Fold these 4 entries.
Entry 1:
Amino acid sequence: MTMTKATITGTGMSTIGRNTGRPAMDHLLEAAQQAMTSAGLTRDDIDGICTYPGKADNSPGMSPLGTGEVRGALGLKTRWHSAVPDGPAQMAPIMVAAMAVMTGQARHVLCFRALTESSSQSAGRRASIAGAGKPQIGGWLSWLVPVGAMSASNWAGWMATRYFHEFGMTREHLGMVAIGQRQFALMNPAAVMQKPLSMADYLDARMISSPLGLFDCDVPIDGAAVVIVSAADAARDCARPPLRIEALGSALRSAETWDQRPDLTTMGAHDAAADLWARTDFKPADVDVLALYDGFSIFVPLWLEALGFCGHGEAKDFIAAGNIGPGGRFPTNTGGGQLSGGRLHGFGLLHEACQQLWGETGARQVANAKTAVCGMGGGFIAGAMLLNRD
């Protein structure tokens, strides 16, 4: 069974970097032009626009552009637009765009993510600190900040601590995740990290939030990525073979906090992944390429288990067996991921998965890649997507 009649027809990514000093709109226009060219579309074909999370100033450089100004800069005349600050993680705008084309609200939707976190951060106002710059902090953060849990690294750190305790995972296992993705990054000229990473380098790096060290954390950058979601019948005339959105998963069955899930060795990913597989006849064994959210390295093993590539508590052995690195059966984050490629909040991962299915990733290309799974989000929020090229 196939759930959707939506496809991905084009992707684009700007030249990314650290402290580039380029305006976010410059990055966005570069990525958007790439995406439209790759799909064989012009701005006159684009009749929808969507983004995550919408324009916001709660964290410097995190989301400087909204749909209105991007629509104006590109000269678009849209029938439909949306920004999704609340939903199944960074996958939300892709899912909403898929629903828009399936219901006839638009034919081709330009989904974008643009940020300048690297240039915008300063010693006095770190983008990684919860509620930075706010005079008051409310909601669930108000319970975490008094105990010093100011950053997502703290929240991911306690999940990793619990997982280590339950299943015997070690820092070396997470090191294998980081090193494997660095090896992929060295085959990707666009990745920001271009120096080899050894296990000694990984273990000697400074601790950020135990047991997570520097190389367990993704890399803030300046850049933009664009994904064009098209109705299946509209995609037939596009330049590339359309990638069918075979299934989407977005279920959430726990409280919307990082610390109140009944089992802290699972995430919202487990709910979203179960929802994904319930909507398709495909199985994990059918997948060729994995794009798994790696805001922190611990998220990768949790996503692997959530998606059924290994059992609960078995990720350390699955990783140690070489399954997810270069040459592995389930190559994961082949562009370097966010740990070595740079953080585009999931959009970069999806861009890489699409490029793999189109066979356009050069030295890191996975042979005969036809099916990819993408999981976005950490903690309680998550969205999952299965893509297939006929």
Entry 2:
Amino acid sequence: MESPRQTTSPLLPGRWRRYLPRLSCASSFGFKTSVWSELGGSVGDLGTYIPIVLALTLVNHLDLGTTLIFTALYNIITGFLFGIPMPVQPMKSIAAVAISESQTHLTVPQIMAAGISTASVLFILGATGLMSFFYRFIPLPVVRGVQLSQGLSFAFSAIKYIRYHQDFATGKSGPARPWLGHDGLILALSALVFVVLTTGSGESIDEAEPLLESREPLRRHRRPVRRVRILSAIPSALLVFLLGLVLCFVRDPSIVKDLKFGPSKIHMVKISWDDWKIGFVRAAIPQIPLSVLNSVIAVCKLSADLFPEKEVSATAVSLSVGAMNLVGCWFGAMPVCHGAGGLAGQYRFGGRSGASVLFLGIGKLILGLVFGNTFVKILSDFPIGLLGVLLLFSGIELAMAFRDMNTKEESFVMLVCAAVSLTGSSAALGFCSGIVLFLLLKLREFDCSSRLHKSGGSNDIDSHLLP
């Protein structure tokens, strides 16, 4: 019989048949995982996906239909290969440069050149085994610091989405939202309360039930356990997203007339030498360290925390990011990666297997084939406050990965790394600061231990201190 590690190794074809029992509902309210749970988790990362895709489409004229089709295929393939809700998210640094750079906005060929350049580096790191080397030797407190900074950054953006109008063309916040209206504060706060009531602090029924039963006799807590089970079975994120789609048509019924059916025409992107230079210097250079840290290292660490029985190797994740963009970017699909925030969001809302991203991929594929690029007309009317609610819970779930920092030294390194990352808006800068601080602390311990050895032990030191 194979060991659990072997049977759950990523990229193993035998894993595919494991989805059949996972997709069955054991009851109408679900248990460990169900169709409703996976559907809820499938939209858990849309709080970051939709705003960035919408901004790139409106500002940089990215073809939404092509991006939907390719990211759908990525979702479906990664769902089968990894067996966990492995997200497919935009490369955020490239998107930030393309949208809000003080110079002229990046063109589509320049964005694609940046994505291909970043993907090439990650593919080489994965193929040579260097990514696995980095994963093994990077200190855990430094990784936790990167995760904490990314999670808090998502949470800060989410609060802005909820409180203020957003202009994605400039990347700036506008005036405060009114209390009433189709995208008012009341709507966002109501969705926030609904998500808290249905998902609590993020614990699953398997985690909540033993806590309830261990404090008092079981008969006293049958009703609370049943209530938690029922609430946890509600796909809150999916319902919030569907509400947003309905409100799109309520806010502007005329968008129905503007919709054109049929997929976008997929064509090769012509990239000139100047496009390569501009895309690499302005967008790929800041994206590469973020992809290494958050798209590979942090994703593998977080997946080990959330799914300890399913080993996801840094080599496989790095090769996956490289392969996706080395194919899709040549056809104008948005540069993407696997993000720890997306994984945290999908897990937060119920995703427990590859079926979660499989459902998401099917949904994207249908939208891309049916509506093509005209689907942007719907997304442009989507209530941003509701996206802020989804993004808030995703960010908090990612930030809470720091809970395994058990010593003051680990917490110190993590917090300094997170603070530098947030202040400098650079995960790479925070990472370097964390590595230096970690090495200094280890050097300090080595110096103390060497002195202790030379003095003959602690008893000798104590004797010197005596009068």
Entry 3:
Amino acid sequence: MRVAVLCGGESSERDVSRSSGWAVAQALAGRGHDVVLIDPAAEQPILADPVPAGDSVVPVPKEPPAPADRAVLRRRMYAALTGGPEQLRSADKVFIALHGGWGEDGHVQALLELAGIPFTGAGHDVCAVAWHKGRCQAVLEAAGIPVPARVLYNPSEQREPPVGVKQLLASGPVVVKPVADGSSVAVRKVDTLDAVRADGELLVEPFLGGREFTVAVIGGTALPVVEIELTTEVFDYAAKYQPGAVREVCPAEIAVDFAEELQDLAVRAHQALGFGPTYSRVDFRCDDAGTPYCLEVNALPGLTRGSLVPVAAKGAGLTYDELVERLLKA
């Protein structure tokens, strides 16, 4: 196939996405596909055409891109996606290795749908719901999937935090995160009301002190459970992408019935949001009693060779190249 791999983009996960894109593109080239790698937000969008086979690693910097850069990146990305390049329009299929922002909130998917270009992953409507943590958790809760108590708070529109935030803090520390962002950018554990305030719309939920797990789902089938053993209190951006910051265990060293419970919850979350035959990654954290709660569902999870979905695939006996081929055809 002639495959265009989209990576980079305008989000805070831009650097992670470029690393994913290179890994995916090289793997597809190694499987015999004709691959072009495109970063629509770059000054020169075509990063490589054709992409050579290989397994070189593109490192992820310790800090995400500065928010001030996003306006320029968005202008470039809009121009590239609506006016070219020709390699994108002529592809048999687009492999979306974008993470966050327009790549994961449904914008890019909607444009490709309008242009009639087939692509990997879920459609624009599913991505839009999954990307907004508040909407996502509301859908999951309605489907009977356990989610944490939560309060949405927009400091630019509300002078004081809602009463619900104060009630959560009365029971202990809370986790504050952007309601629509990925890679745990700006995720914080706080224990005072003043510390809750930040820019943009926030989701505030209780800090869960138990173990952390994630389950990848492909086409309605759950891969082995991965446990994330943290050296920090929250799985933040630095912990996710710097070697040695966490230990990822797959299959997780847990009882069989508990692993099956997590896998069942992940498949139910995948189906409730409408992912169907595509793929997702469902994140869980347990409270002190060991009860799991679903934190979010990722429509376009990281695909670097060290990312959690490839780790889960390896636990299921799939090589990285086999995983990428499977996602291309899902």
Entry 4:
Amino acid sequence: MKTIKLFKFAIAHLLLAQIINPCFASDKNQPLSAFEQAMLHNERGEWLEAETLLSYQLSQNPMQHRVRLELALTQMQLGKFDVAKEHLLSLKQVTELPENVRFNIDIMLNEINAKSQLAEVEPSKSQWGLIGTLATGYDDNVRFSFGDYFLDDDPYLDSFYFVLPDGKEYFISQKGYLYSLDGEIVMPEELGIDISPFLEKPNSMFVESAAIIKYSYLGEQVNWKNNLLIRNIDNADFSDYDKLLFKLDSELAWPLASDKEVALQFEQRNQFRGGEPQITSSALTLGYRLFSKSSEWYMYGQYMDRSFKTIEVQFGDFSYTNYGFDNKSWAAGVEWNKLFYNNQLLAKVQFELKSNDASDGLNYLGAILKTALVYQLDDKWSVAGYVNFFQQDYSKSDLIEAYGLDENSELATIDKSLRIGSKVDYQINQQFSVFVSADWGERSSDIYWGVQSNTVRSKLGFNFEF
């Protein structure tokens, strides 16, 4: 309202000097008049108090032009543009009004008309958005970080094998020996095979690009939100692990009251590795959200149907074939988000229980715990940290006996993963930001031949949003 304040100063003093009906004058030794009290209220931003005094004065004497002017300016501060416009139009009818004063009142009327038109235009119920990311990074163990079943629904690609000329297959143990499916165990040098390239962790630079296309419709009875994620990860030295992901989320939410809603979400996901289809999945989630002043609760139940395709991964002379299977899972979970410290700190927690039924017999009961903290240092800088933990228990699996595991041994059926990460963002402007991130992950699996691995990744990139 800086423009209004400047006009207020100029017009008020011109009116004082030139309009026939002079405005109030007061002796400093006398008590403040009602008009002077109204001016004090205006200086303090107490618009309602000023409006009350000025309205009463004008009702007593409609010819007090200065009072009418101050009342119009006060009502503009209150957003009462229609009544303020009436007062200004009334002032324009004063024949003795100087042309420069009339000109300034016209400017104020134009400002009122512009604001009134904006108020009459309803905001669009449909909104589009685009978020893009381009980053480069380093991975100290690309085989394991991009084969993390828990984080990206990847089969755990670790059991590579070597095929002899006679067609016999030998799988590679983490301890450095070879074994066949018929139980034969040999050392690599006995067969003249060098497996050192496999045992060494393949490091790799990678480039990650992603785009999220957003569309939302905010209606009176239902809200419809859609997000399409397209993400591609290219590895410089291990091209078989290049990944392309398409993921669509579509949610309908019905408000029950100002602080609660029910939501139905559909998810479709297609993932490719090395250009070949790897995973197709669809999910349906029914949820309930409860809002408060600074927090949100979300309780949900989910059904997911996934299909893993048969794929072969090559690494030098070694290869691995992951045979396809289908699985269905049911999950129930709760999410909690809350703002702290004058809305500068956001805490997020998610806990989920899952039951999985797989066509290959590897059924499990699992649990997921995700926590994250995001702290807004100022308008430019923010930092985030997160911890994700996953655990799956295969004790009820149909293949426990086939794997030679003891079904009474809890340790022999546990598959778990832990990942810890952090991120720093710098907001250049409303559209662009740059970030640096790093994470560490570890996996321990008894069900997959007792494999263990860890990864460290770092990433530098920028985001743009429109």
